[in-house]
Amino acid sequence: MNDFFSATKNSLAVIGADPTVMLALLAVLMLILFSVRVKKIRWTFGMMTNIAILLAVAVVLNQLRLFHMPQGGSVTPGGMLPLMLIAWRYGINVGMFAGFLFGIISILQDPFILHPVQVLFDYPLPFMAMGLAALSPKDNFYFGVIAAFFGRFVCHFLSGVIFFGAYAPEGTSVVMWSLTFNAIYIVGETIICLLLVRVLPVKRLLNAMDRRLSVQGDSV
């Protein structure tokens, strides 16, 4: 526990060293909250409980890395699926809000900061892209998985091209390097989530979340 608090303190010190990073994160948060307010989303205790539980599951699953890339990026046993469940149940705006929270947790756990824009493209934005799963046509969860991971891939790809070109092998196109590097783990994560959607009772899980809402329906 002491190690956790020490790591969090060090991470906050790294983030706080550049005020523009905090301003960039706050700007994204304000945009999300504004979109949620415009949609007039009704927050309930049950809804927030579901989001908290699924966020916790996502954090745990993302610690169980099956494969880890040298400069970041991992393949996990479906670590992004809980975020997509949030998007499927509550819509794209809440899904992106949950992704933002997950991104903040990620940057607190392992910050790597080169530039405020790089922080956005490597932390909140890729996980906010999981909210795109809500674009699924009725019960077509496969489409949602692909849309979400494509959005995440675009964020990491742009970050690689703009900020991590120095890691590309000599004589290799930065664009091709970023494309290949990020595709390796993003494709792996996508395949695992597609398989999980195939074998897990996704509709039943979403219905269970509805039942929790009916029991814990106090609005806030």
Account of the 3D structure:
This protein has 220 residues and is mainly α. It has one domain: Arp2/3 complex 21 kDa subunit ARPC3 (Orthogonal Bundle), CATH 1.10.1760. It is built from ten helices and two strands. It has helices at residues 2-16, 19-38, 45-63, 81-90, 92-109, 116-122, 124-128, 141-163, 174-199, 202-215; strands spanning 67-68, 74-75. Helix 2 packs across helix 6 (116-122). The longest helix is centred in the C-terminal third of the chain and has 26 residues, at 174-199.
Write the layout of secondary structure elements.
Layout (H helix, E strand, L loop, with lengths): L1 H15 L2 H20 L6 H19 L3 E2 L5 E2 L5 H10 L1 H18 L6 H7 L1 H5 L12 H23 L10 H26 L2 H14 L5
Antiparallel strand pairs: 1-2
Give a quick summary of the entry.
With 220 residues, this protein is mainly α. It is built from ten helices and two strands.
Largest sheet: 2 strands, antiparallel
What's the CATH first level? Answer: Mainly Alpha
Rounded to an integer, what's the Rg over CA atoms? 18 Å
User: N-to-C terminal Cα separation, in Å?
Assistant: 32 Å
Number of structurally distinct domains = 1
The pLDDT mean sits at 87
Order of helices and strands: HHHEEHHHHHHH
CATH architecture descriptor text: Orthogonal Bundle
Helix share of residues? over 70%
Query: How much of the sequence is in beta strands?
Result: under 5%
Tell the overall outline: globular
Please identify the structural class as seen in this structure.
Answer: mainly alpha
How many distinct beta strands? 2
Low-confidence parts: none
CATH topology: Arp2/3 complex 21 kDa subunit ARPC3
- Tally of alpha and pi helices: 10
The strand line-up of the biggest sheet is 1-2
